[in-house]
Amino acid sequence: MAQRSTQSSSNAALRRPCNIFDLLIHAGDTVLLRVPTGDIKSCKLEADSVINLGKFGSFPADALINQPYGLTYEVANKTINVIPPPAVEELEDTDATNELINDGQFVQPLTAAEIEALKQSGVHATEIIKKQIEMHANYSLKTEYSKDKYKKRKAAKYSKSFTTVQPTLFNVCEYWFTKDQTRILGMRIDTISQMMHLGNVRPGGRYIAVDDASGLVVSALLERLGGNGRLITICDVDSPPAYPVMTQMNFPKELTVDILSSLNWATADEIHTPIVLSAELSTGSYGSEKHKTRLSKRKSVSDALFNVREELFSGEFEGLFIASVYDPLSILGRLFPYLGGSASMVVYSPHLQVVSDLQATLRTDPQYLAPNISESWLRRYQVLPGRTHPLMTTSGGGGYLLHAIKIYDDPCAEPVAVHRRSKSAKQTAESSQSQPEDSASQVPRIANRHLSQ
Amino acid sequence: MWSTARHVAPGDLVIVWLTRDLVQSLVVTPGKAFNSRYGEYPHSDLVGIPYGSKVPSRTGRGFVHILRPTPELWTLALPHRTQILYLADIAFITSWLYIRPGAVVLEAGTGSGSFTHSIARTVGPTGHVYSYEFHEARAGKAAEEFARHGLSDIVTLAHRNVCKSGFTEADIADSVFLDLPAPWEAIGHSKAALRKDRLTRICCFSPCIEQVLRTVSALNDAGFTDITMYETLLRPHEVIQAPRLATVGTVAEKLKRQERNREDKRQRQIAASRARRDATEKRKREDQDVVDPDPDGHELELKKMKTTAQCDDEAYAPDVTMGTDEEVLEDQPSAVTVAADDTTLAMPLPESAPEIQVLSRHSKEVRGHTSFLTFACLLPAVRS
Q1: Chain B, nearest residue to A82 by Cα
Q2: Residues 6+ apart with CB under 8 A from A296
Q3: Do A385 and B217 touch (CB under 8 A)?
Q4: Would an 8 Å CB–CB cutoff place A254 in contact with chain B?
């Protein structure tokens, strides 16, 4: 590639990619709305409907349709207007301290009833806050930081506004992590992101997933496939699995149709022949037009099932992603044969023991290269001017991952002898302690029902 | 990008995995050979084998694994021109910046190209990466590398100091990633490069907190919102198999046996000395009629006890006479060979057949800090 020191914008415009993610809000979408308290609400936007945010007001859904994400709106008179986001201000240090401020002191003569009356009369939130500050006995004693906190707390209480949150994997994962961690098996955004990278997810790739995390893994894979590639999931239910996390992702159908197919543990079993309703005519002629449609529907359903089975069994998938409530070794035993050489396997668990036990078993099998365990660690900071510090409360953990690479083993391969540490080789000694992956090659392999070679 | 074929072909870039700590890359060139302390491998031996094969050395000892390159494996194998970004950071940044197929991403600087490879993979052929590097030699090397890796259609590289000259593109990027010594100098230019019809994002990667503070201030001034900062790490765990921990009950039993043995020994010694004294006295009485200065033999006994106490350590004083001693010896803490590379976790064997358990712990020395990741959003322009 020629090095370009200058690049004209017109040239760039030509290659501007067509984006399958159009990034606008559509009728029928389930949008995430962040309210002033910081909570995120999930709302289904039907055309001509009214969205009710409780104390934060209500407004017609149509007002959001075809809007880009990220804007903040104020709700007033049953309609919404875009407002600028709150500005971050530098605060001046003063001599104020809390030396003379005592807890439980009577400082606010404005009663709850009076505030309620103000709210009812339609007075703007800023006016109520201003009034509260005026009446507050000790407000002037507060530090500037404390004043800022007070104003923000009151604003969260009274202001009728919300911000639309873009349905990115990051935001949707955070929404579910806060709302109901157990349903996504405690998988945090840093962990699911690492899974996508360890598994080399790319547009056009072919992957298998076992997702008992409400579809978080499936959502991540579909976002990274971008409407190009293949994803087969194996689930534990009879009917196509419900992946509730996909609801907030609002994938256009180009991102899912012909990309995602599902089997269950019975239909994904090679030695089992699924029982399907017959699509053959038993009498020689269709009883009615309805009968004909029913039979052709049956046929397409069973054809689809057998095609997906065939596709799975023909193998050569590039990666396997597991976030399951079932024994990961039993899952690997079944799906390992369908992976191509050099494919990645990524197993998630909220429990270290599960992946540790798995690693202890896998490392005795030379078909699994370098099974590795990692724990993800994440710390978020507040970065307000003059007030930079890590957040005071945070999640206890983001889960554990095991990663390994599929190898076509050659049982004749002999490891080199253990290298002794010599003075001259000190620099490289770290890596010269023979070939550890092979030390266990004598140990019997895991019983795979299907041997890959 | 890289070959997606099942088999290795001449000209393919392959990853040669020797050990966990030794991962290299090579371009398969028949006629050449790959030699290392893990054996000799003529490239021609690699042609036609499936990716993911374990390949034995021609010498009969040693083997390598031939893997399909991925940005993650490339990160392990790549020639370091600068400090590189690692998996945990790259993965997190990609998600926060909403880098996805079809996205347009601007990156400065290119450095060793670790991040570039990763996001080029993720944006794919429908997206684009504009990468800027102010160091001329590094830019040249990176450009060659991207061309060799088939990234020319996805990555556009420019030798350019974006802090001074800005980006070559305007109103085009979905996200900007700045890995620069002074990212605050490029914030204004970044704003110009970001598209204005949608929500866009920026990430600044800085190791020092002072850099973060200046960056945050510049982001605030330029009108970015939702400014936040993260640190993320990947903490590796080591798994070992070791016998289940013995209970203190077994230790108590052992100590009690030792105590009993010691007492038995003392009693035997007393008995022996008494017998000896009796014999002597008998002899003395027989020989001559003299008065014994210590008629009960206390002195001798005390002396004996002192010696016993001195060498009562089992290591010095194995009691040859006692039948229980074998048990005592079995109870000795014995170092058990475990998969771990040290002996700190060596366990005493419990009395019955040791039950093996799987244990894991954090690796001893790990990466404790990479950089602070400062993020911000730029809101779409409001349409009337």
Answers
A1: B382
A2: A279
A3: yes
A4: no
